[in-house]
Amino acid sequence: MTQRAATQRTPSSPPVIPGYSYVRPLGSGGFAEVYLYEQDMPHRVVAVKVLNGVGSTAQTRRGFEAEADVMARLSVHPSIVSIYQASISADGRAYIAMEYCPDSMRSRMRSATPLTLEQVLDAGVRLAGALETAHRSGVLHRDLKPSNVLVTTLGRPVLADFGIAEVRGEVEPGAQIALSYPWAAPEVVQTSTSGTIASEIWSLAATLYTFAAGRSPFESAERAQNVREKLAARITKAIYIGLPGGMGNGRLDDVLSRALRKNPDERYSSMLELAEALRDLQREFGYDLTPLEVMSAEWAGALPSVNTDRQRGPVVSTVRSTSRKTERAALRAEHSRTDRSASLQRQDARPMSPMTAMLIGIGGTVVVGGIITGIVMMLQGAL
């Protein structure tokens, strides 16, 4: 479900969220609604995705929290929607406050002609970089399609809706399988896998094909031929049909047809390889080269487990009575006092020099001698 998705179901009332003012609804889906809010500080408009109470279970709650965790980790990438906050509203509903994108690639295609070759290549490189970053972090999106590619206020495509993303190796048995049929790989349509890197390469290629052609690669011009069973049969056969109008003189077809091969092993091995193939086309046609932005290896470790029964939500922050700077100053003062005390003790314990010992001995002898002389004189006077 995207920020601008629509449904026939009447959305529930927007929640009261401290620091945010409700503006209007943006869309709704099976388990969540999206609203436009104004954030008070810093002042900006944001899209707020709210988990509704219809069919809400502990599993959907964990999935919603997992989406927030995944987006927070990956939104550092410029081609992934930024997340600002995730918490629990006053009425107990979980929500995610994120970057507001005023448009989607899907709606743009409905209101205008398909994208130009230059636009398709630019979007492909940006999205491939975002997905390569997700894959290096151990995350599969599992629902790539044009409506999940939003357009920022700067006019750039960004990837959204990680609602059924999978942390590789941690998917639960019986987990939901993404079946956005027109863009799903054959192995996903046949439910033999919930998603792999290879199936995501297929889905991105199918999405780019849609940008260029105005329809998905296996969609028929006859609406009656696009029922799920017939569409699934064509996807399973994976017989590639070139782009209409000879876009890119067949060169884009060469890249997309490889990514859309039926055998996953015959596709590109990674999103990085697909992105480089698209950049080669940019060079060939003399277009500006889109930066290929991928998270560096040291930051792309696997995500921690997010499947937990622990209730998550707002917590009360604790503020220490003293700052760390004050504590460091007190510790240095204590060390200084300890050092001075130890120094004095060392001075007291120093051994006596020979000269000092001789003078003390002479002084002691004089004192004793004086005492003896006085006693003798007292005895003589008594006699």
UniProtKB/TrEMBL annotation:
Domain Protein kinase: 20-279
Catalytic activity, EC: 2.7.11.1
Gene Ontology MF: a single term: ATP binding
Pfam families xrefs: Pkinase
Residues binding ATP, per UniProt: 49
Record field: transmembrane: 356-379
Entry-linked InterPro entries: Kinase-like_dom_sf, Prot_kinase_dom, Protein_kinase_ATP_BS, Ser/Thr_kinase_AS
Domain of life: Bacteria
UniProtKB keywords: ATP-binding, Kinase, Membrane, Nucleotide-binding, Serine/threonine-protein kinase, Transferase, Transmembrane, Transmembrane helix
Ranges annotated as biased composition (Basic and acidic residues): 324-340
Renumbered residue ranges of the record's region Disordered: 318-350
Protein name (Swiss-Prot/TrEMBL): non-specific serine/threonine protein kinase
Organism this protein belongs to: Mycetocola lacteus
Classification lineage: Bacteria, Bacillati, Actinomycetota, Actinomycetes, Micrococcales
